[in-house]
Amino acid sequence: MKISEKNIEFYSDKTLIKGVLHLPQINNPPIVIGSHGLEGTKDSAKQLILSRLLPKNNIGYLRFDHRGCGESKGNFLKDTSVPNRASDFINAVKYILGNEETSRKLGIFGSSLGGSTCIEAWNTLSQMDIELAGCVLTAAPVKSRTIDNITVNEKADNNNSGLPINFYTENLNFDLSEKIKTMTNVLIFHGLADEIVPIENAHTIYKNAKNPKKLILFENGDHQTSSRKDQNVFEKETLKWFKATLS
């Protein structure tokens, strides 16, 4: 199947955001929009996987760089927060639906902090004139205090590795437990050996989300889902979930 791929850009709170839109060659396909992790980009592994997998199955996919990341404008240290990323995500939805190249049937995907972004954005999206069909989350933190093994550098800036401790205490201070209660059609992936986001987060999402919902745990899975076996399960189950919810 022939897939179209084009660079797009839009503004989020006056910040230029850049992304890539992948569409199957059918009229008004459903669309999934993805949110990458904390220090990821639109070129992160799962973003690229879904950009190939979904369009081959007649589902469009948008991957984009949040403000301060990749090709988008902004300052990572100053601009990164869950509310700001949720704003980017909502503006991405508005941009795509405003172009009328897709249907108004929407699926959302978030990896790591991208999952937190999806949870934060869900309530706003559900009040828009769209059919919010379902969500897939992988290794998503619900409470910032649970995040472990972070790399801290008190002298960090945009050119140094690691992040200053006040970045986590100020920019990334959140608890999304209550916001999960409005979500439905949620597929959750998490590795039991995740060294960054503990498994308790996945259980919190599953407990609080509405039915239908599904939790898939990878026995020896790490935060990145680096096992090829786990990746295969992720691809198969994510495709199955979106095909069902977006049909």
Q: Could you please describe the fold and organization of this structure?
A:
The chain is of the alpha/beta class. The chain has a single domain, classed as Alpha/Beta hydrolase fold, catalytic domain (Rossmann fold, 3-Layer(aba) Sandwich). Helix content is 32%, strand content 23%. The protein is built from seven helices and eight strands, in the order E-E-E-H-E-H-H-E-H-E-H-E-H-E-H. It has helices at residues 45-53, 76-79, 82-99, 113-126, 165-171, 200-208, 228-245, and strands spanning 3-12, 15-24, 31-35, 60-64, 105-111, 131-138, 186-191, 213-218. The protein has an eight-stranded mixed sheet, sandwiched between helices. Helix 6 (200-208) links the parallel strand 7 and strand 8 (213-218). Helix 3 packs across helix 4 (113-126). The longest helix is centred in the middle third of the chain and has 18 residues, at 82-99. The chain is globular and about 45 Å long. The two termini are 19 Å apart.
Return the CATH topology.
Rossmann fold
Largest sheet: 8 strands, mixed
CATH structural class: Alpha Beta
- Percent helix: 25-40%
Radius of gyration: 17 Å
Determine the structural class based on helices, strands and strand pairing. Answer: alpha/beta
> What's the structural domain tally?
1
* CATH A-level architecture: 3-Layer(aba) Sandwich
Mean pLDDT: 94
Distance between the termini: 19 Å
